[in-house]
Amino acid sequence: MATKRNIENESKSVATIFATVFIIAACGIFYELLISTLSSYVLGSSVLQFSLTIGLFLFFMGIGSYLSRFVRGPALDRFIAVELVIGIVGGLSVLLLSYAYAIAFTYIPIVLLLIACISICIGLEIPLVMRVLKPLNVKEGIAQVLSFDYIGALIASVLFPLVCLPYLGIMRTAFLVGVINLVVAGMTLRFFHKQIKSVKLLSSVWLVGMLVLVAGLVYSPQITSYFDSYTYQDHVIYSHQSPYQKIVLTKFKDDVRLYLNGSLQFSAIDEARYHEALVHVPMRLVQEPKHVLILGGGDGLAAREVLKYLSVESITVVDLDPEVTTLAKEHPMLTDINKFSLLSAKVLVRNEDAFVFVQEATSQYDVVIIDLPDPSDFSVGKLYAKEFYQSVERIIAPGGVLVTQASSPFFARRPYWMVHHTLESVFDWVDAYSLQVPSFGPWGFHVAASRPHNSTAAPLTVSTTVLTGELVESMFIFSKDVAEIDTDIHTLVNQRLVHEYEDSWKYFYE
Q1: What global pTM score does this model have?
Q2: Reported confidence tier of residue 110, pLDDT bands at 50, 70, 90
Q3: 371 given a catalytic annotation
């Protein structure tokens, strides 16, 4: 009977350890994804941030595995202590990084310290688990531990983008994962309490850590709002994490601003300069345009300008994020600016990837307006590639034109002209123009077509706030310091534009 009871106890102990490894592995991946995501928000270049974070995690995990040989004392005590550190530090990671970025301005040192601390502890985990399992005579222990570890990592990788980020947000997810981490550590502590020598100390640390993380979980919206007030210059009136990006609206007096992942999309006081230049230059070049495609433009401001043309019968707005277009349809501060454009009977909103849309589209459009974010990472860079423009060229009606925003010819001179030359590799005629937009600085555009047009000859036939015929003519004149330069073209294979864009802006802001 005693032997049977011992076997049952050993089986329960092994099952508890494997369950702990499974949950802890999932939590570890969550922390890695949380730090990568937040870093991409505040530092830009999601590919770079995810690559660096993953690389640093693996590097410090290796250091942790190496250091495990120097860890002395009861393996179970050390294992639970490591799990407590991972849970508390990981759960507080987004809070600490938000403070480092918004208030202390020490983001990079803090993120490196957090990555080192969490991943070294994760590296210590498996060697310590193997020491705990050794007396239990578990066959193929390392294989089973790694299996549970990898399965937990897979589940976390799926849950984070599909469930946690869109429904909980980054701050609340961090606290919740930390709480789960400590719950598992607490269950392990309770199950093995008779075998743990420092049970009182570990229990006290667990209790304090749990109280802090639960408080953070409950008050995470207030904490997020607090840090947003430091991050954004003006009063935050709306903040939400969608599956694709963090959406923030701010207001100061009459100035409403929209930010996506911390990047300004428009300012109400000067957005007309940008959107009138983007829309009316190409619309003037087509006689009685009927069908217009807007790629991006989920705020409805480009559509507002297109609706001024009585000949227009349909406008298709393709924007990836349904939460942006819903906000533009419903939020009174946005509808006041976009004049309810996305609710017009002429407007069809498609929440799809623009790259896929133009590949699959069968309709043709008289004017294609590309109002997409700057090519700061590869996911957006594909929307400036030669292959993308080839797909767009196929759906432009005879006599139709394309226009795209192309960042600043002053701050990003090489990227600006690279877009121009990439368009020239597809279209027979391309013209460049720019306009001063105070919120952004000098801002540039390119208009393209399969046959030549006179960019400045066509008159303005709709009411405008900013543009005049004389101003339009001046927009096609470039000073020496921003004039055309030789560049390569941008393709899906080389992704040169993304690298050039990063280098250009770093020169001015780092």
Answers
A1: 0.82
A2: very high
A3: yes
